[in-house]
Amino acid sequence: MSDKLRRFFNEGTTDEITKRMLGTLLVYHSPKGLMSGYITEAEAYLGQKDSAAHAYQGKRTPSNEALYGVPGTIYIYSIHGRLCLDVAAQAKDVPEGILIRGIEPYQGIDLMKANRPKSGFELTNGPGKLMDALGIYDKEMNLIELGDTALDLDVDNVKFPKKIVESGRIGVSDRGTWTDKPYRFYVKGNPYVSKLPKREMDLKTYGWK
DNA sequence: TACACGATGGTCT
DNA sequence: GACCATCGTGTAA
Q: Does A205 reside within a domain?
């Protein structure tokens, strides 16, 4: 991992880092070619105290081990037969993480369409969908730091959201008081956001400054 | 556009 | 055997 990326993660709380991640460029050097996309939507999961998190009450198993890694460790997990992409956000052994839920395709769009023959914004507007579009079908990169494998995060060539919307996290079944806490963040108006009604899409600027 | 629901397969108990 | 940080299709309005 680059020093610059290390600094990106080493400052702030996990929800602050999650917001900072909106507009950064997720880069994947796939076997088929380069693909990338700007992060449009992400969720923070605050570790052992967070009843919606995989590491709630310090739960630690082989599959969620990556959450306990250094900041920027890739956490790939499967759910309902799909894969999702997470990144550890805090110091080693502090199991807080960020779920990447949407990207706006930038490079390699044709490759993504070949991987996932869906029209329009359905290409990458969900955590399982974007993994499908990138063509990541296994957990080979799990436990590795961003930048030390084919996946990287470019924090130099970024876009800036005009406004960030907060909401409850998607898909968490009832888990007490943390169920509805506003730890989902997305770029207001960007169409590559899950479950976004058409009327809330800003098709002129996609919500960027 | 909103909601309901079935398929799905890895992971844990 | 149950759970689940999902997705796609179906229905109705």
A: no
CB within 8 A of A2, min separation 6: which ones?
A147
Full domain range(s) for residue A168: 3-200
Angle at Cα A178 formed by Cα A173 and Cα A183, nearest 5°? 95
A60 CA → B13 C1’, Å: 14
Strands A151-154 and A184-187: unpaired
pLDDT for A179-205, tens place per residue?
999 999 999 999 999 999 999 999 999
> What single string gives the DSSP state of each residue in A117-168?
---GGGGTSSHHHHHHHHT--S-TTTTSBTTSSSEEEESSS---BS-EEEEP
DSSP string across A69-111: SSTTBEEEEEETTEEEEEEE-SSTT---EEEEEEEEEEE-HHH
In-domain check, residue A209: no
Residue A26 lies in a domain: yes
Q: Give chain A residues 87-116 with Cβ within 7 A of strand B.
A: none
Instruction: Name residues whose C-beta falls within 8 Å of residue A182's C-beta, 6 or more positions apart in sequence.
Output: A166, A167, A168
For A8-61, what is each residue's pLDDT tens digit? 999 999 999 999 999 999 999 999 999 999 999 999 999 999 999 999 999 999
A192 touches strand C (CB under 7 A): no
